Amino acid sequence: MLNKNLRIVFALFTATMLVLVACKKKKATSTPRHTTKRTTKTPAEKTGSIVGKVVTYKSGKTTLKGYIAYDSSKKGKRPGVIVVHEWWGHNAYARRRANMLAKLGYVALALDMYGEGKKTSHPKDASKFMMAVMKNMKEGENRFKAAKELLEKHPMTNPAKVAAIGYCFGGAIVLHMARTGFALKGVASFHGNLTSMRKVKKGDIKAEILVMNGGADPFVKPEAITAFKKEMTDAGAKFKFISYPGAKHAFTNPDATAKGKKFKLPLAYNKEADQKSWAEMKTFFTRIFGS
Questions:
Q1: Dihedral of CA 197/200/206/210: which sign?
Q2: In the prediction, which pLDDT does 210 show?
Q3: Environment class of residue 286 by beta-carbon count within 10 Å: exposed (0-12), middle (13-18) or buried (19+)?
Q4: Which one, of 192, 140, 187, lies nearest residue 165 by Cα?
Q5: Which of 52, 55, 121, 177 could be joined to 69 by an S-S link, Cβ 3.0–4.6 Å?
Q6: How many angstroms separate the CA atoms of 109 and 147, rounded?
Q7: Is 167 helix (H, G, I), strand (E, B) or coil?
Q8: Contact between 247 and 215 (Cβ < 8 Å)
Q9: Cβ contacts of residue 209 below 8 Å, gap of 6+?
């Protein structure tokens, strides 16, 4: 279960987001429940040499619906990268990032943390979906592990070279998995929450960590940054923290500005920060994967 301090942090985050939502009540939009299908019957989509395919897998009794992409023009096994979505759920943005990673030569899996591929475009539903995971992080960990196992079994994946990236909520998830000592070469967090969900001891963290933060993100306070850096240093973790001046929350998502205006939230796309953070991630992966 979520510890008391983290419960407070995420409650404040959620409350802040929802208080800023426009007073008009608009029915949340979400995708209907999907009927589980066998992965072998799911047709693959192909754009140029990039093959993308919806995949269904399980964590306990929960059916999860992800998306895996790779470049069919490349031969042999290559590193795998897990993509953890924002609090909106497994949507087109997460899949687009998976395709971008495939173009870089990786096998990318945009996982599903909510089950049945659930997604929404309204912050009230996003909050409910996110908190359901955050209140039961053991199950959240299991869903991440199930995704990693699926990625490792892909014929194009080198299971010895797997990393993860996450956006917003997803950034918090990949940092948590690193803090648990999970077997990953590295994790990269884009505008993610920095607060720890567990007490980390020296030597616990095995993965290298890259954090890319918006300098004008109101959800990541200076004291949280100071605490994160101390936590990483005390744990002996290898990490890099980058702050992009003027960048607000969700600075990598081109849809962020429109959503920010619609719901009166401090979200905004920042092209410069988006491009610089992606380039930083590429350099990070080249180093940790040794290619």
A1: positive
A2: 98
A3: exposed
A4: 187
A5: 52
A6: 8
A7: strand
A8: yes
A9: 175, 178, 186, 187, 188, 189, 232, 237, 238, 239, 240
Burial (Cβ within 10 Å: 0-12, 13-18, ≥19) of residue 280: middle
**Which domains occur in the chain, in start order?**
4-18+47-289 (3.40.50.1820)
Question: Who contacts 267 (Cβ-Cβ below 8 Å, separation ≥6)?
Answer: 248, 249, 250, 253, 256, 257, 259, 260
Q: Looking at the DSSP assignment, which residues form a beta bridge with residue 46? A: 51
Could you tell me the two tokens for 33? 């429940």
**Cα(first)–Cα(last) distance of the chain, in Å?**
39
The Cα 78–Cα 30 span in angstroms is 35
9 is written with which tokens?
């942090």
Query: Across 75-156, where does the E strand assignment appear?
Result: 78-84, 107-110
Backbone angles phi, psi at 280, to 5 degrees: -65, -40
pLDDT in tens, 231-286: 999 999 999 999 999 999 999 999 999 999 999 999 999 999 999 999 999 999 99
Q: How far apart are CA 138 and CA 160, in angstroms?
A: 24
Residue 160: count of CB within 10 angstroms of its CB: 12
Alpha carbon distance 155, 21 (integer Å): 45
